[in-house]
Specification:
Elements lengths: L1 E5 L6 H9 L8 E5 L5 H5 L6 E2 L16 H7 L3 E4 L2 H6 L4 H14 L2 E6 L3 H5 L3 H16 L5 E5 L13 H14 L4 E4 L4 H8 L6 E4 L6 H13 L1
Parallel strand pairs: 1-2, 1-8, 3-4, 4-5, 5-6, 6-7, 7-8
The structure holds 2-phosphoglycolic acid.
Length: 230
Amino acid sequence: MLIAGNWKMFKGPAEAEAFLAGFEPPEGVDIVLCPPYISLAAAVATGATIYAQNVHWEEQGPYTGEVSATMLLELGVQGALVGHSERRQLFGETDETVARRARAALEAGLGVIACVGETLEQREAGDTELVLKIQVEAIAYAAGSHPNLVIAYEPVWAIGTGKTASPEQAEEAHVFIRDVLDRPVLYGGSVKPENAAELLSREAIGGALVGGASLEPESFAAICQAASRS
Ligand code: PGA
């Protein structure tokens, strides 16, 4: 069971270090935290498993604002998210760029959590499976079922909205994704201490990608505890 905390654009180095210095991970759960780039070094220094929130596919070059897998490895970072819906929706990330990022990171030796998920409009139009198939196939085509690849199913309508997919909705999507690509699938989208146990009890749900509730040590610890019990 893997629980990943995505801190998005929160927590500079001092806050990241303070959070991790006081954090005791429970037994039997793999825990990953994804701080902003500027806080990666401070977070790595605490000994925690740290992933970046994105990674470029080239090793170096004229790509302003981007960071490569080699650079992350030099810092002691162990993996990266790719394709988060905020990257797709706000920063022009496409299935192709997500696939290229995933492949390069895996080839360099990083772990990858590749995010997929439908918008509310797509769900209401009955296109959830079509969207998931296109997104997951792009990743599968580039990376195959690489052992260091994990998929995160994050319905866009459930991210930061307080609306969670029901365990049935999540499980249905996870089973579908695993039929396309046989890798573990995390659920993300308003995971909180109150709903974590129920979601994580589902066989097809291999862990969680947590945004808002990973920012407070108490709520993140409660979610990790729920994972260690399931
Ligand atoms: P949330 O974010 O838990 O705040 O909904 C999840 C994510 O964006 O990964």
